[in-house]
Structures are given as C-alpha cells and as structure tokens.
Fold this protein.
Amino acid sequence: MPLTNFRTLGRSGLIVNPLALGTMTFGTPRWGSPDDVCEAIFNAYVDAGGNFVDTSDIYAGGHSEELLGRFVAQRQLRDQVVLATKFTWNASRGNPNAGGSGRKNIYRALEGSLRRLQTDYVDVYWLHAWDVVTPAEELLQTFGDLVRAGKIRYFGLSDVPAWFMTQVAVLAQAHGVPGPIAVQPEYSLTERSIEREHVPAARALGLGVVPWSPLAGGFLAGKYARQDADKGSGEGRLSGPSPLGDTKFTDQNWRVLDVLRTVAGQLDRPLPQVALAWVAAQPGVSSILLGASKVAQLRANLAALEIKLTAEQLRALDQVSTLELVHPYQIATPEVNRSIFGGHAVRGWQ
Ligand SMILES: NC(=O)c1ccc[n+]([C@@H]2O[C@H](COP(=O)([O-])OP(=O)(O)OC[C@H]3O[C@@H](n4cnc5c(N)ncnc54)[C@H](OP(=O)(O)O)[C@@H]3O)[C@@H](O)[C@H]2O)c1
C-alpha cells in the first residue's frame, strides 16, 4: 500500500494519506530537531507523496507552526497540503481566557496560528484537549462560525472522552450543521483503551481516527534496554523526563515489545515499521501521525505501508496487548452472543 493510497478523513470530502506528518519534534528542545533537520523531514514527507501535516500552537511555543508555515510557503504547497493545527493550552499564565475551548480563546488562538503558519485558513482545526468545562453547544457554534467565515475548512477533537465526542457529533447531525470529521487520540500497541468506546463511536458517527504516538514516543522502536531504561541512559526522547509525564517502561509494555520483536524477526523488518503496520491494520484508523527526530526515521517509517501482517502475527500482537474485559463489555463475547441469539453467532452490519 503506497503513501498515495488516499482516503477521506472520516465522512467528509477531505482527502488524506494513510500516514500524516506530526511536527511535535519541530524546534522542540532536548528531544526535538533543529530547523534544518525539520526542513529535511518535511521535504522527505512531501516528496514521498505526503499531503497531511499536523502541528499545534503549543509545540515549541509556536515555533513548530512557524517552521511548517515557512516550509509550505517556500515550496508553494498551500493548496496541496492539508494543514492541521490545534488550540487548548494556555499561552499567557494568569489569563484563564488564553486557554481552553471557550469562544474567546479559540478566536485568539486561531489568529496566532494563522499568522505563524502564513496562511488565512486551516484545513483541520483540532481541539487539542478536553477542557472539562466548556459546553459542547458553544464549541460547536464556534467551530461552525469559523467554517462559515472561511477560517477553517473542517475540525476535529483530540484527547476528549468518547461521550463528549459523541455529544458534539450528534448535536451537529441533529441540527444539520458542520460537525467534527475526526478524532485524534493516543493509540498504539501499548495504549489501546480507545478500542472500548472511541473507535466504535467514531465508526458509527463517521469520524476518522488519527492516532498519535503510534510508537509510544519511541518505546516501540526497541531502542531502550529493560535493565537500564529507568536510569535515563541511552539516546531518545524517553531517556529524559516524559513530555506527557507518564512512563512507557512498564512490565506489560516490555512484554508487548518482546512479541513485537518476534514478529519483526519473522518479517525481517525493523520494529517501528511493524508497530506502525499493526496500527494501520486496526478498524477505524484513517491516517497515522508519524513522529520523527531524524529524516532517516521518517523514511524508514514510511516503509511500514509495505508490510502486511499475517492473521497469526496480528493475533499474537493482539493477545499480548489486549484490553482487560471490563463491564459492560464482558457480554460482547462470542459465547454471550450465541446465548442471546438462540445458539447462532450473529454479526452486526459493520
Ligand atoms: N493530540 C495530542 O495530544 C498529541 C500528543 C502527542 C503527539 N501528537 C501528534 O502525533 C505526532 C506523533 O507523536 P509522537 O512523536 O509521540 O509519535 P511516536 O511515533 O510515538 O514517537 C516518535 C518518536 O519515536 C522515535 N522514532 C520514530 N521513528 C523511529 C525509528 N524508525 N527508529 C527509532 N526511533 C524512532 C523518535 O524519537 P527519538 O529519536 O527521540 O527516540 C520520534 O521522535 C506528533 O508529532 C504530534 O503531531 C498529538
């Protein structure tokens, strides 16, 4: 499957690649990349046929947006690229209206992003994270006004509970106004919780799933050794404090890595490619956000689309990383299905 195996982003007319370029590394100190490397990564992605680029007003304090805006402008690619950015995180300590999903902040944030990106519209404007307090109705009205004003083409939701995503999408459908076309959650072999609620809801509501940290911040690249991982040794983002304040070095994740290593050995492919191929094979996934600190990583990861995992390999990776069956999903088993339908195994329409 090549990068130019285009698909729509959710139930919309926006066309994107199966792999998007994430730019959280662009200009970020310690684990990010200097400007010239960012430019090489951007060029490698678009020269390979990539059209979907993702940033945020918070990455490198806005410098990621500045770099992306400059690279797009230099190559006059504004019409070709699907440019996505995000708002939520506070830009001005002490000012509660300089963060969150309220109308006042969204207008403030978007003006800043447009300036840094050197453009007058964003293709996909993401809510970066749930702010817990802003009503779904206000958010939807603000997004709709921005679509009608031509400042954004589409919008999506990142890091929100499934109930909130569903509320926003259903309100939009019921009122016949622009609704979200995609959801952007963390998703990888080490973080599968969205399979319980977000993925089924997204599929039912026509939202594309755009996973972030598909390699668990580099953990699934297999570059960390179990015996000294927690000592902060070695090279890579996870060698220092996690940007998200969590740890990937858990017993469960090391077990996942062992099975990933076995499957990668069978395929004679690098671990990160196999981890990405697993994400690409999951239901509901529209486009995976690639992260890279070096151009060689980006090139290697693009080759993940060449891999087709066998049913047995998918089963092995699924088994080691599978979610605990919690209420009410313990009834969604083949045994209970047969019991409900009088001894027959009945499949749904999807
Ligand atoms: N919405 C959100 O809340 C949110 C949160 C996080 C990210 N994102 C988006 O998702 C994108 C991807 O996230 P991510 O950067 O965390 O993705 P990731 O794929 O989990 O991690 C990428 C990191 O893994 C390492 N790596 C990647 N390919 C490699 C390879 N072939 N060999 C060895 N190491 C490799 C590199 O780090 P080192 O070289 O430092 O090891 C790279 O920076 C971001 O750029 C951003 O656009 C969104």
Observations:
- The pocket of NAP is lined by residues 22-25, 31, 54, 128, 158-159, 184, 212-218, 221, 223, 236-237, 272, 289, 291-293, 297, 300-301 (CB under 6 Å).
